[in-house]
Design brief:
The chain is α/β, with parallel strands linked by helices. It has a single domain, classed as Aldolase class I (TIM Barrel), CATH 3.20.20.70. It is built from eleven helices and eleven strands. It has helices at about 30-35, 45-55, 75-85, 105-110, 125-130, 140-150, 170-180, 210-220, 245-250, 280-285, 290-300; strands spanning about 10-15, 60-65, 90-95, 115-120, 155-160, 185-190, 230, 235-240, 245, 250-255, 260. It has a nine-stranded mixed beta sheet with strand order 7-6-5-4-3-2-1-10-11, covered by helices on one side. The chain starts with 11 loop residues before the first strand and ends in a 15-residue tail after the last helix. The relative contact order is 0.15.
Amino acid sequence: MSLRWGDISIDTVQVETTRDCNLACPGCLRTLRKGMGRWSDDRMSAALFSRILNHLPACRVLILNGTGEPMLNPEIADIVRQARDSGKFQGITFNSNGLARGVDAYLDVARAGLGFLSISVDSLTQAVADKVRAGTKVDKLAGRIGELARALPIPITITSVVCRENLLDIGETLAKLNDLGRFTVFLTDWSDVAQLDFLDPMARRLDDKERAFLAALVTKLGPQLPNLDLVQTQPALRGKADRCSAPFRHPFVDAEGYLTPCCTLTDAHHYGQVSIAETPLLEALGLPQPARWLEGYALAEPLACRGCQHAIRR
């Protein structure tokens, strides 16, 4: 087995600066659990982040978002500034829906030290956006992307989650993005978060035929969209383990400061509610419960991983 507890090599750390959001995307864990009365819109304070920051290792990239919209955290610029001033990270970023705050607020976080901004765009067709990113006003989003592309002194990337509801619309959305500025666009598979709670699958995930269609579309459209670099992301597998390496390379810290395995498995119970405000991250991974979890993961993928885009396809 190529994955072992001793294979920990931190590449990125993701810190959830808020669990609140201005949208209600049907494929989001927040939307699902909020509807079941099992969600709290917590926001991480700059003071708590400071304690966590002291316990994070130096790494390539710090990602300052989780399930929520980071621009809803009123202290996000201060959090970014603290991260930059620590000198621990080669890059600092977060993913935003682009709609929660105005351009000046994004300028503040860029000046505070954000290295690049990622914006989620699953569709710029209103009827499709209503299905995949409920609450999105596509005209406002398109206008905001254009404004940010002109105003920000940092690069902007686009993340598009592709599922059955927007697959046939992706070409039109990409054409509209091409007219708004120069972007790298990451086209990524949809993850079925319902399976984290062992609920019935939502049946939105692309099958192999649909994934091949998307790949062919990316190849065809690339030369026609000179302002876009199109990247169809692939499952993050590693070696003979045939398994995503995220728990060994990309740990996640939730809005309360608890360490979790990755950006999909964001429940603190997996590691026994270990606080990174109290314990250095690398030390925490060696505690009995996290170490047992990692050793077990190296042997067999947990059932909770089933809906993730990086899970083994059976």
